[in-house]
Amino acid sequence: MRIPAHAVCTAIRDDIVSGVFEPGGRLTEEVLARRYGVSRVPVREALRTLESEGFVTTRRHAGACVAEPTEQEAADLLELRMLLEPLAAARAARRRTDAHLKVLRGLVRLGQERARRGQGEDLRSLGGWFHETLAQASGSPGLISLLTQMRHKIAWMYVVEAPARPVESWAEHGAVVDAVARGDAERARALTAIHADRAAGAHRLRLRPVVSTSQPAVNMSSGRH
After folding, report:
1. Average model confidence (pLDDT) for the chain?
2. Which residues pair with 158 in a beta bridge?
3. Rounded-to-integer distance, Cα 122 and Cα 116, Å
């Protein structure tokens, strides 16, 4: 069975984000094909996609390598997200469907419940799903794609600390959903901008340890991604 390039791309991206492949490390088609149990063709396609996303660079005489983002590039990324997330919220207020609203409200209920009980281990994933759904509700494919790439890259570049006041953080999420439900684009934009500004303070640049280049094989046909 031929494994599609997008599945290989997701696997390589996940391994870059999680630190399996460190910044500056070489990414050879042969090694990657063996690791994921695929041919070199989908690996080659995946590397081209990851280069367009900024996770991979091509160096003369070295080939494909994991990109090495600078502190300025990381700071710019957070600033861009702080501009684009409010735009997505404003568009969601105009374009969201009932299905989007149902999911957003369900996530807020779960988040508020977990926050009150002090179950912080679930809050990070719930927060990620919330912002992903809010972006989807914008109805703008280009904006959705940009925000998705930013989430991956921010997870790669930063460690995100848990909010000091999770109950207040999820109350902010709830207020955004209320504005989206009412179709109040400007309020949705303003509330999301305030929330994004506060959340930015919880980001700390990630220090990457040297990772062994000896990695076990990963068979893509076994059900991963």
Report:
1. 88
2. 205
3. 12
Span 152-185, pLDDT tens digits: 999 899 988 877 788 999 999 999 999 999 999 9
Instruction: Say what the pLDDT of residue 162 is.
Output: 74
Q: Shortest CA distance to 128 belongs to which of 95, 155, 165?
A: 155
Interatomic CA distance for residues 52 and 49, integer angstroms: 5
What is residue 62's DSSP assignment? T
Q: What is the pLDDT of residues 25-45, one digit of tens each?
A: 999 999 999 999 999 999 999
Backbone angles phi, psi at 196, to 5 degrees: -65, -35
String of DSSP letters for 92-155: HHHH--HHHHHHHHHHHHHHHHHHHHT-HHHHHHHHHHHHHHHHHHT--HHHHHHHHHHHHHHH
Asked if 188 contacts 104 with a C-beta cutoff of 8 angstroms, the reply is no
Q: Which of 149, 140, 141, 144 is nearest to 91 (CA)?
A: 140
Please report, rounded to a whole number, the percentage of residues in the chain having pLDDT higher than 90: 72
Cβ-count burial 101-135 (b if 16+ within 10 Å, e if not): bebbeebbebbbebbeeeeeeebeebbebbbbbbb
pTM value? 0.80
Task: Give the residue-averaged pLDDT of 86-97.
Answer: 97
DSSP β-ladder status, 158-160 and 56-59: unpaired
